[in-house]
Amino acid sequence: MIWDYIVAFIFGVVEGITEWLPVSSTGHMIILNEFLKLNVSPEFYDLYLVVIQLGAIMAVIVIFWKEIWPFGVKNNDHPFAKEGIGRYIMKDKIIMWLKIALACVPAAIVGARRASL
């Protein structure tokens, strides 16, 4: 029981270090699993690889919040409109979010197709 916590802690440390380096953090997790096995089902392990990365994703969101939030008047060089509610929306950031949403479509299609199999 305690060994599982130690292994999970080691996985967390490896994820935390490799997420910020220009290397594949998931690849290191897979390699680490060859040496230190988590006592879980393969399905749970696949989910674990995704969930353990949420900390890094949340850190990026917190650090870059001002750069990704598309609403506000301050520093709005490219508003949708000069007056009304459009002046609160930053056109360049909305376009960025639309591109991100569009980039997610292929993964959503593959995921939906795989889930139906």
Topology:
Blueprint lengths: L1 H18 L5 H11 L6 H10 L2 H10 L1 H4 L22 H26 L1
3D architecture notes:
The chain has helices at about 1-20, 25-35, 40-50, 55-65, 65-70, 90-115. The protein has six helices and no strands. Helix 1 (about 1-20) packs antiparallel against helix 2 (about 25-35). The two termini are about 35 Å apart. The model has no long low-confidence stretch (mean pLDDT about 85). It is elongated. It has about 120 residues and is mainly alpha-helical. Helices cover about 70% and strands about 0% of the residues. About 0% of the residues are buried.
Sum this structure up briefly:
The protein is mainly alpha-helical and 117 residues long. The chain is 68% helix and 0% strand.
Straight-line distance between termini: 35 Å
Strand content: under 5%
Radius of gyration: 20 Å
Biggest sheet: strands, sense, closure? none
Number of DSSP helical runs: 6
What pattern of helices and strands is seen along the backbone?
HHHHHH
